[in-house]
Design brief:
Order of helices and strands: HHEEHEEEE
Strand order of the largest sheet: 2-1-6-5-4-3
Strand content: over 45%
Helix content: 25-40%
Largest sheet: 6 strands, mixed
Length: about 120
């Protein structure tokens, strides 16, 4: 499998973690030292992977509610064992634009940093 496909698989696990409210999938997609950062109406949010996984677990499952999933890879740039992906996804009623930086660690691509921007309501 190509690096691009492996990265897209990691992104899918990340998205599924939110869509299914599955904290184990979040922990599988992120490097243990990753940070999740962005602005909400309440201001700047900064989370560790453990905190983010707990947040995901606290939300109702969109999949169980019968929602339609929305995930779009806007672009992906790979440079050796690093990569950056810009993705758009719907989560908890919002449309997000996420910038994900990834590292290839022991032949597995993991998200090392997530910056998120809320574009507006989910469509």
């Amino acid at each position: 499998m190509s690096d691009a496909q492996d990265i897209k698989n990691t992104i899918k696990v990340y998205f599924d973690s939110m869509f299914e409210s599955d904290p184990d999938k979040a922990r599988a997609a992120f490097h243990r030292d990753a940070k999740i950062t962005g602005y909400t109406a309440d201001g700047l949010i900064e989370m560790t992977v453990i905190e983010f996984a707990g947040f995901i677990a606290s939300q109702p499952s969109a999949k169980a509610a019968g929602a339609d999933p929305f995930l779009e890879t806007v672009w992906l740039n790979i440079a050796g064992d690093t990569a950056v992906a810009l993705i758009r996804d719907d989560y908890i009623g919002n449309r997000y634009l996420d910038t994900l930086s990834l590292l290839k660690c022991e032949n597995k691509w993991l998200i090392y940093n997530k910056l998120f921007h809320i574009e507006g309501p989910a469509k």
